[in-house]
What we know:
The structure holds two protein chains of two kinds.
Chain A: H1 4-33, H2 39-51, H3 54-65, H4 70-79, H5 87-112, H6 115-123, H7 128-136, H8 141-156, H9 160-166, H10 176-185, H11 189-220
Helix pairs in contact in A: 1-5, 1-8, 1-10, 2-5, 3-5, 3-9, 5-8, 5-9, 6-7, 8-11, 10-11
Chain B: E1 2-12, E2 15-25, E3 30-34, H1 41-49, E4 55-60, E5 63-67, E6 70-71, E7 79-82, H2 94-101, H3 105-114, H4 130-142, E8 148-152, H5 160-177, E9 180-184, H6 188-194, E10 197-202, E11 205-210, H7 212-216, E12 225-237, E13 240-247, E14 250-256, H8 258-263, E15 269-275, E16 278-283
Parallel strand pairs in B: 3-9, 3-10, 7-8, 8-9
Antiparallel strand pairs in B: 1-2, 1-4, 4-5, 5-6, 10-11, 12-13, 12-15, 13-14, 15-16
Amino acid sequence: xxxxxxxxxxxxxxxxxxxxxxxxxxxxxxxxxxxxxxxxxxxxxxxxxxxxxxxxxxxxxxxxxxxxxxxxxxxxxxxxxxxxxxxxxxxxxxxxxxxxxxxxxxxxxxxxxxxxxxxxxxxxxxxxxxxxxxxxxxxxxxxxxxxxxxxxxxxxxxxxxxxxxxxxxxxxxxxxxxxxxxxxxxxxxxxxxxxxxxxxxxxxxxxxxxxxxxxxxxxxxxx
Amino acid sequence: xxxxxxxxxxxxxxxxxxxxxxxxxxxxxxxxxxxxxxxxxxxxxxxxxxxxxxxxxxxxxxxxxxxxxxxxxxxxxxxxxxxxxxxxxxxxxxxxxxxxxxxxxxxxxxxxxxxxxxxxxxxxxxxxxxxxxxxxxxxxxxxxxxxxxxxxxxxxxxxxxxxxxxxxxxxxxxxxxxxxxxxxxxxxxxxxxxxxxxxxxxxxxxxxxxxxxxxxxxxxxxxxxxxxxxxxxxxxxxxxxxxxxxxxxxxxxxxxxxxxxxxxxxxxxxxxxxxxxxxxxxxx
Lengths: 223, 284
């Protein structure tokens, strides 16, 4: 029995969470502070991956990353990187797929912060950047933890998009969920049971730890 | 000197309202902003701080803070601001709250000593009472040694005893730091004790401006004293009527005639005044 698919799943999820955090942080901050008319459009766009069937999302990403689209051609011709059926492509696809799970908790966290607290920081002469990292983020740890962990867990749990964009190349794109699918297809139920049980256990522990952390945090701050 | 001439459209509970203020404030003055809620006091304060946009001009000591399509960001205005609900940084200790504004340990120690908070400095805001939190907030606002200190109903959430104590501290700090202080307040005794000048705002316009004694003391009529209150109930007891009026925190019973009782409506604002020794009740 090989644990390679699990390692691949966690590598993919960690990278996705890291990249998405960097992208979603400014986006969520902007969405929480702006009164611009384009806000609802941006909000709808970021929420799309939650409602679209993974096959639709997967199809578009597959098309965009393939050699027949300008983007895919550019990457392959100038940078020599093949995006489809590769780990890099998987990371890009996962970033799209999990975007709302990072943006929404962060935006929510920013919106529930005491506005006066941020204003007090501006009046103290601090820039928005300093205020974000020294006042806003430290005062919304539950939202921060929720965003990162749920993004991670959601990426580990993805299947449809991964299958369409990555295929099932061992050691490259064959993540745990795809591996289980294949085991069931070839009727290797024993391995499928073991893999599934491991996934179930890990997912539960991860979610449980988030809820325990948030409950403790709220208790400490008397919320 | 602070010269203010600003306009802003406000959307309040009573529809659209124009905030229109023109006044000058001298250096070192302690100005109280008074008026009913929704009259634009807090907005005026926030415009001064640069937290809200407005048309017009604000200049402070020849420096333009606001002029047509250019507004100095709050970061660059030399102000301290005390919010009604404290707005402390909950992730920092009391000491860190102060040092975040300016890394001046000596000043922080001094301020904490003045406000008797030295022993609490390693605690987090959540472990403090309301009065203590507001003292920290006032200290924090002074850490930048601001030229102008803006206070938005800083003491309204506190009990009377704590209020009096903090009023004295505010006065001490105002004198020691030589700030120009502008405070929103509803409380006449607080205004009388602290302010050297009162601006009364009504529907976004300044309707009264002067010394607290001139503005606050009722000089109309020949009454020796008069109080405003709310008529709560009129009871018929045998042949007379008794009106129950709430004045401040106190309920008062007053005898009224049957004609008077017919004219009065429950819930109405009334003044209670005496001429010689007979109390009389009249509609406002």
